Amino acid sequence: MILRVSFAAVLAALALFLSGFAFADAPPLKAANGMLVDSAGMAVYTYDKDEAGSGKSNCVGVCARNWPPVKAPAGTLAEPWSIVTREDGSKQLAHRGKPLYTFIKDKNAGDKTGDGVGGAWHVVEVPAR
Description:
It comes from Massilia agri. Keywords: Signal. The chain has helices at about 5-20, 20-25, 60-65, and strands spanning about 30, 35, 45, 80-85, 90-95, 100, 120-125. The chain is globular. The chain is built from three helices and seven strands; from the N terminus they run H-H-E-E-E-H-E-E-E-E. The chain has one domain (about 30-125). The protein is of the alpha+beta class.
């Protein structure tokens, strides 16, 4: 018996199969100038008061207004990415278990004026390849 399958049906099946892997292949942030940045090119930071792997953020209220949490995308993430559920139920992106933030005083792509603030905020560095 010969099975005839249209090319369109094969492509549709392949797209459905690969859709579960699409996000894992493309990290939600990118490297630029030796640091992680969001889609707008803004530096991404970690906060020393957040414990890696704790699943929570210690930057809330006024802190979160000055250091906006990086929103987590929908779907499943592959290491080193994970998701933290904030007090208000929103989802925050984490890198190596540490919640991620931007800084309100960074105005242009590539700014990293928050690095070292209070001795507790650090830009997420990416080693050169």
